[in-house]
Amino acid sequence: MSAGKTIAEKIFSAHAGVDARAGDIVIADVDFVMGQDGTSPLAIRALEEMGVSGVFDPARVALVIDHSAPSPLEGVSALHTMMREFGKSTGVHVYDVGCGVCHQLLPEMGHVVPGDLVVGCDSHTCTYGALNVFSTGVGSTDGAAAMASGKLWFKVPETIKVTYTGELAPGVFSKDLILYLAGMLGADGATYQALEFHGPVIDDLSVEARMTISNMAIELGAKAGLMRADAKTLAWYEGRGDRAPAPVEPDADAVYVREIRVDAGDVAPQVAKPHAVDNTSPVDDVVGTPIAEGFLGTCTNGRLEDLEIAARILKGRRVHPDVRFIVAPASRRILLDAIEAGYIQTLVEAGAAVVTPGCGPCVGTHNGVPSDGENVISTANRNFKGRMGNSNAFIYLASPATVAASVIEGTITDPRAYFEGGR
Amino acid sequence: MTIRARAFKYGDDINTDYIISGKYKFKSTDMEAMAVHAMEELDSHYYEKVKPSGGFLVAGKNFGMGSSREQAPLVLIHSNTKAVLAKSFARIFYRNAINTGLPVVECDTDLIDEGDELELDLTGGALRDVTKGIEIPFSPLPPVMAQLLADGGLVAHFKKHGGFAI
Questions:
Q1: Which of A65, A134, A222, A393 could form a disulfide with A217 if both were Cys (CB 3.0 to 4.6 A apart)?
Q2: CA–CA separation, A223 vs A37, rounded Å?
């Protein structure tokens, strides 16, 4: 009797047509391939060099103009044009300026469903792991090979099982859970490996909050951050796209390389300090640090629930006069829903600057480059030196609640005071 | 083929934003122009030091962590970096390096100092610190990657075989 399999081993077995085990090299069929405006141009060029004029299935490929959208520079505009022309000549999906961030759009449009194997030319492609999709970031040339052939080679990863037990305290969110784990395991704590997230705390989270966790798997070096598909996941897919989910459960006797248990009750609001994502501490350690800019958005925390949390805290309050508060909803759909729910009204009345759905501030292309010496508190996933476009600025990462509380005070603030039962 | 060049040494956890900042990578596909900014966040003189006669980029653990940008290995190639030697590599960077034809060697880089003269014979599997007169052992590339690198990268592999032939 051979041992049971992890989610990763099962998805690779199904897509490679072999009994795939951790450590095996397989050539597997991919269900979907994505590129964004920082990576697609090199993929298009690689396809040209390969002598390939079409893609394996235009319905299974999407190019998303999100990282620098709308274009702030003529050089960027030329790259966007290149993507649009590729879309016209091949028939692949092109999501243009204003549609939103790639990692929100792919699930939102139903392009990726539970059980899929997906690659994207963006490291945060691991986001869809929350939806039971083995999805991973690749470079432009790997992306081009996958677009051309519908296949890619993979090393089947070992899996670390992470179980969150206990209960989240009021004012503590899924962002805090993953920042805590990043601090625990370090930036290379799961390199070449997959993470599988389990436990009652994960079960209780919304699908959106789960995506925040899987999104940051790469910050621990992981190839994927997988979760089971439950009734919530399947309900989330109703009315999205036309592909049927095929959920994959890990076997009870699956072999894990390591098992970690985290008591969520021990987790306080977390902050990742400059200039590393694993440089985390409880918010207490940095309370009072002055900030000049707050940013709410990104593939990590730009979803409706995140805007709702911020709006709840900012309702009837004002952003501190010394702070710029920039809000970028993760997609047009989210922006529309947030307008309808009144969150945008609340945030704008409080003093927020709402910008086009997209990535801009997080990757330093436009829409909020900080000045020399300034501190920024952001809901993004990376705080490397220079990340937001200025090497002399300092980026702190936190949950939407911590960011909202901090922009009111003008200093890094513990959000628990804003929650009943918090402190 | 043996490559001989000097070592330029940096630390652990060097991310792709430090290899090439996001503020440059979205502007263009001209790697020759972008290469001037290679490693700028850590060493604003990297390009002028390495470009004239080439060099080995020597680092600690987890080199190339972070984003999937293929501009990272490309600007290193265009700055005349002959290979990256590190204790360990981040997964996406490692694949991208092989796919674009930049040799990557996992070895004990504590043995190497800034400015050492190194000789690398990838096919023969030998790395020598000429300055110190020592051989530094390294693990060979996985066979799949060795084949892709031997073919000249993934694009060349596809052109040669019309698809994956591994």
A1: A222
A2: 22
